[in-house]
Amino acid sequence: MTDQPDVPDQRAAPALPDQPAIAALPATPAVAALEAAGVPFRVVRTEIARSAEESAQLQGVPLGSLLRSILVRRAADDFLFVLVPGGRRFNWPKLRALLGTNRLTLPTEEEAKAETGYVRGAITPFGARRPWPVIVDASIDGLEVVAIGGGARGVNVHLAPADLIAATGAQVVDITIPEQPAPEAAAPESHAAPESQAAPDASAG
Predict the structure, then answer these.
(1) Residues 6+ apart with CB under 8 A from 28
(2) Which residues have CB under 8 Å from 76's CB, separation 6+?
(3) Strand positions, DSSP E, the chain
(4) pLDDT in tens, 143-182
(5) What does DSSP assign to residue 122?
(6) Which of 180, 67, 60, 77 is nearest to 134 (CA)?
(7) d(CA 8, CA 24)
(8) Comparing C-alpha atoms, which of 160, 162, 138, 136 is closest to residue 69?
(9) Would you say 59 and 205 are in contact if contact means Cβ atoms under 8 Å apart?
(10) CA torsion through residues 70, 169, 57, 41, sign
(11) Fewer CB within 10 Å: N-end or C-end of the chain?
């Protein structure tokens, strides 16, 4: 890949111990959107991780600071982003109650790319093709930093939780539960999304 000019990283951003080195990056809509919004952030590039645990380790952040961006459909042309910390999954009954609907589904990879402009593994609300509402789990309260996808696989953005909430207008809700292996016999509900989340769309890298 041809090297591109460094993304500016000199602005104030959450300090992290053992922060991975910031590499030269290709421009992404997410990074451009953050720059345009004047949000303090740091860009970290890593190899593509095979799991949330590996991604957090590569980025030097706790697993709970890693946010997966999951696109959820609540109507034919009505989506939202749910930001789920690593080691947790969103609770479908809580989400359905919050949104006042029993019909929630996960789009296909192709549908998610059409709605966001990003491939699976790089989905993020920043710079998405359409500005869908954002819900973030309340467990990010008190964290020093969160890591979220930067719009390309292996590209990650680190920023303060308050800045993420302000930049996205996110609704902060207790919407997740600790992640546990799904029972093999568990069956999804007939017109709603399954209780487990097999596809972690955003590795924050």
Answers:
(1) 127, 150, 151, 152, 155
(2) none
(3) 42-45, 66-75, 78-85, 88-90, 134-137, 146-149, 155-159, 171-173, 176-178
(4) 999 999 999 999 999 999 999 999 999 999 999 999 876 5
(5) B
(6) 67
(7) 10
(8) 136
(9) yes
(10) positive
(11) N
pLDDT above 50 (res 36): yes
Report the number of secondary-structure helices (H) and strands (E) in the chain: 5, 9
Dist. CA 189–CA 195, nearest whole Å: 8
Distances in Å between the alpha carbon of 63 and those of 145, 159, 179? 11, 15, 12
Q: What are phi and psi of 137, to 5 degrees?
A: -70, 140
Q: HSE (CB half, 13 Å, CA atoms) of 39?
A: 26
* DSSP bridge partners of 75: 78
- Cβ–Cβ contacts within 10 Å for residue 151, how many? 28
Tokens 């990056």 sit at which residue?
Answer: 25
Tokens in use for 145? 């930093």
Domains of the chain, earliest start first: 29-178 (3.90.960.10)
CA 201 distance to own-chain centroid:
7
Q: Which residue type sits at 194?
A: P
pLDDT band at residue 201 using 50, 70 and 90 as cut-offs: very low
**CA-based angle 190:108:200, to the nearest 5?**
90
Tell me which residue has tokens 């959107």. 33
